[in-house]
Specification:
Enolase-like, domain 1, 4-stranded antiparallel sheet, 20% strand, single chain, 33% helix
Amino acid sequence: MTAAAMTATPAAEFRAAGTDLSERRRSGVSTGPLIDISPAPDTIGMHWGDDGSLRIGAFTTIAAIAADACLAAAYPGIAASAQGLATPQIRHLATLGGNLAQRSRCWYFRSPHIACLKKGGTECPARSGNHLYHVAFDLGPCVAPHPSTMAATLLAYDARITTDRRSSLAIGDLLGDGTDGRADNALQPGEMIRSIELGVPLPGERALYKRAISRSHAEWPLVEICARAVIKDGAFQFVRLAAGGIAPVPLRLTAAEAALQGKPTKLSTIAVAAERATSGAKPLPMTGYKLDLLKGVAQDLLERLAE
């Protein structure tokens, strides 16, 4: 079968490093034809603009992102999230594009014997089943949290995505708003991510990343936040808080951001913002604990940013 013919087949999947795909093939969840792809010069590595902006090729490994000193200086939240993602072995192979396009980690989706929305079923079995690690912001029929750490961090940086068919996609354009439940992203059949574009860093900005994890499932965050801020004259002049692990898509914590904008970097102000990080939450019966984690991670990051 030719690559063009496989691309036209809805069940066909791209394979680059295959860190997630290989697991799904072994379990029998993914059984369709494969399209092996390799990087072109413009789809790998760091490409800096004269103005200080950055384009990262989708085939760039997470390890390369984590180790790049220039990227860490300009976009410290991205470097920190890459350093904390998965394990060294996975980071060495996994690509940025693959991380953004990976599939759900829900154990019902990962079982070849259980139908769910993402596999053509009519309901989400996790909603009435074991959803201990699932969403605390219930946005739609599927209650599995989005699996991509880099998507949450790139949301904090207002990154844009270029595919082989579309350019300047926001993270929301790529992943949807979480209300569908049938797909992990809005990529069209056969559409491939080629690069991720980052704007010029703001003067004086600082950023941190933190995840709360389970000891027995240390490579997957229960809650994670990337926080960016510009602090001037003792006040928050700019704030971005983006969280993963809590919803079907990464979320901006806009109520917490609003509580900080223009306000002094006092502990009382930060405490109010941390409480508002949970605004709009609708936890499931087993996921209320994630709201405490979300508030705790937000408060810790903001206090460290304000130091």
